[in-house]
Design goal:
This protein has 451 residues and is of the alpha/beta class. The chain is built from 16 helices and eleven strands. It is 44% helix and 12% strand. The strands form two sheets. A seven-stranded mixed sheet has the order 1-7-6-5-4-2-3, sandwiched between helices. A four-stranded antiparallel sheet has the order 8-9-11-10. The longest helix has 24 residues. The structure holds pyridoxal-5'-phosphate. The site of pyridoxal-5'-phosphate (PLP) has 14 residues, from α6.
Length: 451
């Protein structure tokens, strides 16, 4: 009898079905929003899927297609404007299938040299648009949370090796607008986070950091700036932060998980002036650079500084150290890794970087259109002038409960996915545009539904 690792006629038929399914989903237009279901509902529809004999591939695929995928939201749905959505290119999605098929271990150069070389070319494009110097390098990690943690661990280690022990936990200076993952990372590290006030444009800037350093300097091991806050798309004042950090010999990490993609176009690149001073930088291609989940580009100005704390050493790994000089496992908290930068690389190589600039431009146009439409309507008002592709606005006169109820109703009706957020403790809505397939007519439709 054939085992589960043998390719049989049945496997062949299953391959046709799986590939046909992936192909059909990739080209689906329009893409449905889908809707969540409760665990009880799914139990009663699907029953027990894990059995001693197996239910068979065709049945499992059928359950996925008919029940499970429809119970999972499509982040590439054109009216999914909550959080930070995603809009992977066809090329990137298709190549993700290839990555899965190839069983490449992405932790060491010995095992993954070809794939890692390609990932490094993609990382180097990110480096070049960020204006960071040659020699900068890093690795693709699962997301901004892990990217921030890895960079902050390297920042603290750098302080530990060059500065006297402060006698209390090391601390990071961050703005109140920093992403929740920065605080989470500090917590994992047992480090402190010191909030620094922002300027009138809600940016973290040099003078405030200088004042905070005067007060807490002995124990500050890094500044975490944000280049594109998740809530409003605000880019911190990197041009004044860089010199302050340099002068104090403090690590500057820049979190561009969402907004870093705006470096791809000349239109918004000037907002990032000063990024060249960063010691580390992240951007999530799975957010606004059209790659599938999960993919965060993590860069270090001095890769050795990251290697010094992140490289794992053991007898069974020593052989890898002797071979090749670029082991991606050395740059974050991981060992085994999927070569998750490859779908991004394949799409970049396929389409060229101009296509990325154009696609980001389209989403910036959508944000400008939405901001303009909002300023013309009398029942909504802008909460903040957009600089990237986030448009934050208020529904005049609504309570937090009304925001919530509207979101639930529109999700249920499959009309849109726009969740409320908060600004200065008051509810707001925000549109986050990362999908070039979204149309201005769809924006009008959502705004009308808010009337
Ligand atoms: C999304 C986001 C993160 C977290 O990234 P994940 O990929 O979700 O882990 C961190 N920082 C900012 C600014 C973000 O927008």
């Amino acid at each position: 009898m054939a085992g589960m690792h043998d390719w049989t006629e049945e496997t062949d038929a299953l391959a046709e079905q799986v590939i046909a399914y992936a192909r059909a989903r990739t080209r689906l237009d329009p893409i449905p929003l889908n809707a969540p279901r409760t665990s009880e509902e799914l139990d009663s529809i699907c029953g027990q899927t894990i059995t001693a004999d197996g239910i068979g591939g065709p049945r499992a695929l059928e359950l996925f297609a008919d029940v499970l995928e429809p119970a999972s939201l499509s982040v590439d749905y054109t009216k999914y404007l909550s959080f930070v959505p995603a809009a992977p290119t066809e090329a990137a999605v298709l190549f993700d299938l290839v990555v899965g098929a190839c069983s490449i271990y992405g932790g060491s150069w010995l095992e993954g040299s070809g794939a890692i070389w390609a990932e490094n070319q993609a990382l180097d494009w990110v480096r070049s648009i960020a204006g960071m110097p040659e020699g900068t390098g890093g690795v693709f990690v699962p997301g901004g949370t892990i990217g921030n943690l890895a960079a902050m661990v390297a920042a603290r280690h750098s302080a530990q090796t060059t500065r006297p022990d402060p006698g209390s936990p090391w601390a990071f200076l961050v703005s109140a607008e920093a992403h929740s993952s920065v605080k989470a990372a500090a917590q994992v590290m047992g480090a402190d986070v010191i909030a620094v006030e922002t300027d009138e444009q809600r940016r973290l800037a040099g003078p405030a950091v200088e004042r905070a350093l005067a007060e807490h300097g002995d124990r500050v091991c890094g500044v975490v700036a944000t280049s594109g806050t998740t809530n409003l798309g605000v880019v911190d004042d990197l041009a004044t932060l860089g010199p302050v950090c340099r002068a104090a010999d403090i690590w500057l990490h820049v979190d561009g998980a969402y907004g870093g993609a705006a470096l791809a176009t000349e239109r918004t690149r000037p907002l990032f002036a000063g990024l060249e001073h960063a010691d580390s930088f992240i951007v999530d291609p799975h957010k606004w650079l059209f790659a599938p989940f999960d993919c965060c580009a993590l860069l270090y100005r001095d890769p050795d500084a990251a290697r010094a704390i992140h490289a794992q050493h053991a007898g069974y790994l020593a052989f890898l150290d002797a071979y090749g000089d670029w082991n991606p496992s050395d740059f974050a908290i991981h060992l085994t890794r999927r070569v998750r930068g490859l779908p991004f690389w394949f799409s970049l190589a396929t389409h060229g970087t101009d296509a990325y600039a154009e696609a980001v431009d389209i989403t910036l146009d959508l944000a400008a259109y939405a901001a303009d439409a909002i300023s013309r309507l009398d029942y909504v008002e802008l909460a903040h002038e957009p600089s990237l592709s986030v448009v934050a606005f208020r529904r005049i006169g609504w309570t937090a409960e009304e925001y919530q109820a509207w979101t639930e109703a529109t999700l249920e009706a499959g009309l849109a996915f726009v969740t409320p957020s908060r600004l200065d403790r008051a509810p707001i809505f925000r549109f986050c545009f990362v999908n070039p397939r979204t149309t201005t007519a769809e924006i009008d439709e959502i705004l009308s539904a808010l009337a």
